[in-house]
């Protein structure tokens, strides 16, 4: 067994293989799994109902059209312009589309213009045509439920064993998934497996479905699934079927290599040798490289791409064979906007769209200035359409604005520009007309705090409340404000510091005596409390920032608290936040 010692932010694993310096993510954004929503027959409801619903949550679907059924070409072109995938479902929807593999692709491609062309086909009546012709024209051939044809319904990280038989679970009242729980159970299974799940929908109950009359689906159940996916966006990548297929094939064929480096600049190449007449295979891949830099700018092929720093890695998306990737720490501003890929990214390093530019920290964050399309708000109200038009609950607050009309689970995200790493005090100016106080959570990566919103009897009387400190790295970060109770208004969030001890400082360390039951030694900065009296709060997060355990316990030391907290956890690295009730929370990294 390798014993791990943790000193500040450094991790040393004795006898273990060193961490990979550069890595291509299994799934976009270093998520755990992928999900695709596909639609057959070109129903009118797919234009009027499905596409707006997916756009609302920032997700895109795959829409398989029957050429001779004369679908709403302009409507589907508008969807393609917004990033949805338009695909083939044959010319005539006969019992078997053999002989139409190439012609349906050509015909639909003559009507729909999109970056990658027509690269996906779904078989009418789930009958597989000529596999060779399919593979000559498409990168994906979709069947229906895998169990109907002897293949797994949830694919592993490398996709199906046969790309002409990609499974998709039927949805709807007659023969498929038709509840939110049904969708989320399948996506959870994909997350646990680290794989890919797809769904197949025709029309919607009570909507204008044209020829798509088979097994109509409850649209509210699907919307619930999209809400769940948005809340679990760090784990599940929702993307069109053809895009996921390109990502898998490129990821398995690509390699990233360091080409040259200097003190403030590193150049990489990202290449693959996939060669066919179907696609250029130029979908962006998510990449991270180890780095101790505190700031970064990036280009590929001389064009700016977005990059961010988190947990000792630089994250970015890049296109294979798209030219040299140059990372620079010299502080020179590189303006995104003409990136090497025009495909909207879904990665953790995806280009954010700040409403009024990145927000300087330390400083105040006006709640109504959340990033463009970076929110979930279940109540479509807006008192200030002159300020923002996206119905995310902007309300008047004195001479300014706030966010309101909120429901528990709503959230808003903000791009920060943190000037210096350290611990920052958090306070929130909020109001509620509820009889009792509520709360919000302010989180940046794995560091978070809950802050009260006190009741003053109405929604127009604001008061400031303080939470615990959070730890921020320098550079671009994303802050998420999550609403924990219904009917809370938030005016602003303040992040301030009193020349705090830099996060990750290891200039002075103290070993917590002894070791845990798992044989782990925990080493923490001396700024952390080692001795307690009374009840201690504790939250444990994995290295992706997901909370895996929360508890309150009577503990005498950090070691004692960790022994209680790590029960039932799998072996690995964790972040533990702890503190006595009424006192600031502290943070250490621990290993089991």
Give an overview in words:
By secondary structure, the chain is an alpha+beta fold. It contains eight helices and 39 strands. The strands form ten sheets. Strands 4, 5, 6, 9, 10, 11 and 12 form a seven-stranded mixed sheet that branches. Strands 21, 23, 26, 28, 29 and 32 form a six-stranded mixed sheet that branches. It has a five-stranded antiparallel sheet with strand order 13-14-20-16-17. Helix 1 links the parallel strand 4 (33-40) and strand 5. The model is unreliable at 1-19, 331-351 and 499-530 (pLDDT under 50).
Low-confidence runs of at least 5 consecutive residues: 1-19, 331-351, 499-530
Total beta-strand segments: 39
Give the helix proportion (percent range): 10-25%
Main sheet? Answer: 7 strands, mixed
| Shape descriptor | globular
Amino- and carboxy-terminal Cα gap:
11 Å
Strand content: 25-35%
Radius of gyration: 25 Å
Number of continuous helical runs: 8
The overall pLDDT average reads 83
